[in-house]
Design goal:
alpha/beta; two-stranded antiparallel sheet
Length: 227
């Protein structure tokens, strides 16, 4: 199993210069949730993370027909993922991982959610700015609660998000206190201190018209407090 060292993150926070941390070690069994156009999953697969079969499972909230309708590159990208050896599962709610079709799968070393953002259709039309913040925080609380059930004992949950308004208002690092489990905040890494930039340059489509560029992005890492 691919363990995650909390001491490693502590060390990185103490050094003065850039130091890369390997968030996705070679050989990791990875679950990607909340994929929009599957660009990042394609990057992982192309970098060799799907070799061996079953090592990379890429999921989206949309059903496959919706993915194909939303994204011009959808059909080609899903075909490429499958041809490389990744598994694609659509219609997966990141808040209910432990209750859906993935519940009986072997556990994962890494569970990642890049640039989480609720679909516009999930927010009531009369909702105010603070209601939107709370709704997205609730999404991530439920995700953390669900993800721990599919995580190997020494695994890690990864959330990549923007370090600017409004995303910084979500206080992602504080969410484990409400997620009803044993996950703890392990650390926050600047995007450029990880292998993310070498895998993927962005932008990330989280919905048809919701493009997120990885500038000013940070990577939040969560692990079991005992790891």
């Amino acid at each position: 199993h691919i363990s995650f060292s909390l001491k490693m993150l502590q060390h990185v926070r103490q050094v003065d210069g850039p130091q890369q941390v390997t968030v996705f070690p070679v050989g990791s069994r990875i679950l990607a949730v909340g994929e929009g156009d599957f660009a990042f999953s394609e990057a992982l697969a192309s970098a060799g993370y799907a070799q061996g079969g079953g090592q990379l499972i890429a999921t989206a909230l949309d059903e496959e027909a919706e993915v194909l309708a939303k994204y011009a590159c959808g059909a080609e990208r899903l075909s490429k993922l499958r041809s490389i050896g990744a598994e694609v599962v659509c219609g997966i709610d990141a808040r209910q991982l432990h209750e859906g079709p993935l519940a009986t799968r072997d556990a994962f070393d890494r569970i990642l959610f890049n640039f989480p953002l609720l679909p516009v259709t999930a927010i009531p039309g009369h909702a105010g700015q603070y209601d939107v913040h709370l709704a997205n925080r609730a999404l991530l609380v439920d995700f953390l609660h669900s993800a721990q059930h599919l995580l190997r004992p020494n695994g890690a949950v990864i959330i990549a998000s923007k370090d600017c308004f409004p995303y910084s208002w979500w206080r992602i690092e504080a969410l484990p206190q409400w997620s009803r489990g044993d996950l703890a905040f392990a650390g926050m890494l600047p995007w450029q201190y990880t292998e993310y930039p070498t895998l993927y340059a962005g932008p990330c489509n989280v919905n048809r018209d919701a493009v997120v560029k990885p500038t000013d992005a940070v990577v939040y890492v969560f692990a079991r407090a005992s790891s």
